[in-house]
Automatic annotation (TrEMBL):
The keyword tRNA-binding does not apply. Residues 89-184 form the Small ribosomal subunit protein uS10 domain. It comes from the Eukaryota. It holds the Pfam family Ribosomal_S10. It comes from Cottoperca gobio (Frogmouth). GO terms for cellular component: mitochondrial ribosome; ribonucleoprotein complex. This is 39S ribosomal protein L48, mitochondrial-like. The keyword Ribonucleoprotein applies. Keywords: Ribonucleoprotein, Ribosomal protein. Signal peptide: none annotated. SMART domains: Ribosomal_S10.
Amino acid sequence: MNAFFRKLQVSVTQQAFVFNGALALCRATPTIQHPVWTSVNERQYRSMPTNGIGRWRHLVVKVVQKKKRDKHQMKEIKSGSKTTYPTLNVKVTGYDMTLVEHYSNYIHNLCNRLHIKVSDSYALQTKTSEVMLTKEESSRMNIEVILKTHSRIIQLSSLDASICPVFMDVILKNQAEGVQLSVEKHNVDEYHARFKIRSELEGLKSKIGTRNR
């Protein structure tokens, strides 16, 4: 038994000596480190906030293209039927613009309450008229008063024949003093009357027409 333990101790000491020698050699030999190649364009701070650094698109002013205005076109004139009237123009005229405006608004609101379709409402050009008088024992005429006539149009489409008498009765009973009321059928001349006539443009058109001839 003693001989066996002696052999075991000798083998253990030899193994420990060999292990210590190998460890010393490992410490003595330098380790070879391979260089790590990284790409130049790779961002190491991708996960970090940039707080808008380097943005420039908000500095460029956006060019907004202007939309071309479409020319005003005439709406279709609806023809009447057995139970409805054709397109009608309720014309309100007077010398006092406030009365004319309020009365036309009243008619418009009444149409909305009675469920009468108002296709359009607009103002016509203000017309001026001069009142001239002659003094006694004189042939010279002097301008006494300049009157301005204001007009408003409320255009009705598909007015029901059953409700038309009630509608006319109400607006006539509530007609303002000094305001004239008329109802006419809408036509092409009424449509062109709302636009201002350019005398200079008409003169140029006539000159161009004579030259082309």
